[in-house]
Each structure stands twice: as structure tokens, then as C-alpha cells.
Amino acid sequence: MNPTDSEGRGQVLTLDQPDPGTHRLARPSGEEGLALDQVTLRRMRVGVVAVVLLGLAVAALALWQPWAGTPAGTKASQWAAQQRDTATQVATEGLLSLNTIDHRRIGATVDRWAGITTGALSHDVRTGRAEVVRRARHDRTVASARLVQAAFTAFDAEAGTATVIAVLEISASKAGAKPTTTRNRFRVLVQREGGRWKLAYFETLAVQQ
Amino acid sequence: MSGRLRAITAGAFLALLASGGFLLLHLRGDGQTVDDLAFVDAAATASVTRDVSEAVQSAFTLDPSKPAASTRAAHRWLTGNAVGEYDDLYGPLLSSARKEGLSLTTTVRAAGLTWLHTDEARLLVLADQTGRTTAGQHRSGAAQLSITAVLVDGRWLVTDFTLL
Predict the structure, then answer these.
(1) Which of A47, A67, A138, B44 has its CA 20 to 30 A from that of A22?
(2) A79 touches chain B (CB under 8 A)
(3) Å from A30 to nearest chain B CA?
């Protein structure tokens, strides 16, 4: 017998084997305090069942959430707020993208525009691609944009539509012309399509005479 | 049996811990009510947009035939820093209106919410302005205003504005 194991498992096994009728929990050596009779065992089972039931009750309560008391559910508001935040992100990033031009990578730029637009705007981007590429290369246009501020003028979470107005600072340079930095204001319509928000329309808001 | 019982107890204990954690997460998630109420609280969205549009249009329009109207509107709609900002910007224009008959019309083209809290909001107002002198000269321009509004006694007042 392994001496290091003499007090523990080895002994239990050797003593268990000759008398299979003895309950295995009734360890005869060293652990007398843990020897369990049927009554203690039943109590333990009851305890385990109680713990399991308590766990289930807590889980059920967590799912039911009776304390989430606001009418129409905070969940709906949270969903709407989440949709709104996504819409504004898509709108502002889209506006920045549509005002960022590098004639050296104009093909990729227009392809990116096609990816973030939908409907008539997407159609315009695709059909106008050749002309946009030609002009950007001819003028050697480089333009970058920075968002000054954006705001919602309309938002419908259910319908998946939002109108965003924004002020952008646009720095542009063309061959043979002085670089310019202007503040421009835009209105953009974004729409949710199959779970994805895209730019459906955009216009610059020029001064009305 | 000892091993199985121990496994069951451990499992039950883990289940309890897990559901407790789940419960805590949900409680915390609910505590995090929506911070930005823009277009989530429809009534507040409508009233702040309406009040601020009215404030901009009336306080930033100068009619030489009734110069007091602009000042009255400014008193009615502006508070805090906005009072001083208005005096700095419109003081000279108001005296031109009185002395030289300068008129300035401000038309709100679009007013939107950048964010909305229970009693404070940030708005972007896109306006057109047309100035006219008695000599008949006129000039139009775009005015973009970033506005902070606060809710005071059921009315939204402009507490800060910046020309963008």
C-alpha cells in the first residue's frame, strides 16, 4: 500500500469492497463525523431541492421583472433610443463620407458611397459614378469634413426613418484654386432597411432668398 | 453518493449564483433608464423644439417700427449666460434699428435636437437672416445656432447660444 495514501482513499476502498451492503458514505476511518444516516441524507436532499427551487424563483423573477414599472415598458424606450443613436451615427458618418473626397482613391470613395446609400440616392451615386470620378481626377479634388453639430428634426423608431440636420466644416482643395474651408449645413434622411440604417436623401440647406 | 450529492449541491449553488447575477444585471440595466430622451419623450421633444424656435425667431428679429418687441422677447425667452450673449451680439444692432431703421428678419429653417434630458436640452437651429437698411440695401445670410435650453416652470428657456 502507498504510505501517503494509507489514511484516505486506499483504506476506504479496501474496507468498502468486502461489504458492499455498507453505505459508502459511512466512512469507517478518520471521517466518522461525516457519517450520514438516511435521515441526514434526506435532509440534505430537501436542502438541495430548496436551493434549486430558490434559484428557479430568482431566475423567474429576473425574467418577469415586475419592478420594471414604467408603462409601455422601459425596454421599448431603450430600443427606440438605441435605434435613434444608430440612425444619427449612420447619418453623420454618411455625411462625412459624402464630403470626403480624394481624387487618388476616387473609385473606392464612390464605391463606399454606394454601400451606405439606398433608394434614389444610391441610384444617383451609381449612375453618376463615371462623371464624379472624371471630375475629381480632372480637378484633383481633395476634400475632408469635420462634424460641427448634428441634430434630429424627425425620428420614427417603428417606421425606421429619421431626419438629421448637421453643420459640417469642409476643407477642400482643387488644382489651380485656393484651398477653402467653409461651414455647410445639410439635411439628410436615413432609413432602416433589413435592420441596417442607410442614407436615403441629402441636401444642402442654402439660404432662401 | 457523497460525490453525486456534492455535485448536485455545487450545481444548485452555481445556479443560484448565476440567477442572482442575472437578476443584478437586469436590475442595473433597468436603473439605466434612457439618458437621452430626444424623440423618446415625444411631448418634451415637441415643446422644446417649439419654444426654442419661437425664442430664436422672436428675439433675433428686429423690427425698427417696434424695437421693444425684440427686447421683450429676449427677456421672455433668454436666461443665464444667454442674456449677456444677446446684449453683446444684439446691443449694437438694436441701437442701429432705433437710430438708422435697420431691420433684421430671422427665419428658422430647421430646428433639431442634439440631446434632451429631463430639464436640459441641446439644439441645433438653422436659420436664414435678412437685414435691410432704410436706404433699401439688403443682405441675406445663413445663421447656425447651437443652443442650450433649460426647463423653467414648464417653459424651455435659452440659457446659452453659440453661432456656429
Answers:
(1) A47
(2) no
(3) 16
What is the 3 state secondary structure string of A100-129?
Answer: CEEHHHHHHHHHHHHHHECHHHHHHHHHCH
Note the pTM of the prediction, 2 decimals.
0.71
Looking at chain A, which residue has its C-alpha nearest residue B12? Answer: A52
Residue type, B112: G
d(CA A161, CA B114): 17
Which residues on A lie below 8 Å from B20 (Cβ)?
A: 58
Per-residue pLDDT of chain A (209 residues; tens, 9 = 90+): 444 444 444 434 433 444 444 444 444 444 445 566 777 778 878 888 888 788 788 777 766 665 554 434 478 889 999 999 999 999 999 999 999 999 999 999 999 999 999 999 999 999 999 999 999 999 999 999 999 999 999 999 999 999 999 999 999 999 999 999 999 999 999 999 999 999 999 999 999 87
- CA B121/CA B52 separation, integer angstroms: 10
Q: Which residues of B touch A182 (CB under 8 A)?
A: none
Domains of chain A, each with CATH number or no CATH:
74-205 (3.10.450.230)
- Do B112 and A153 contact (CB within 8 A), yes or no? yes
**SS3 (DSSP) at B124:** strand
Q: Does A127 touch chain B (CB under 8 A)?
A: no
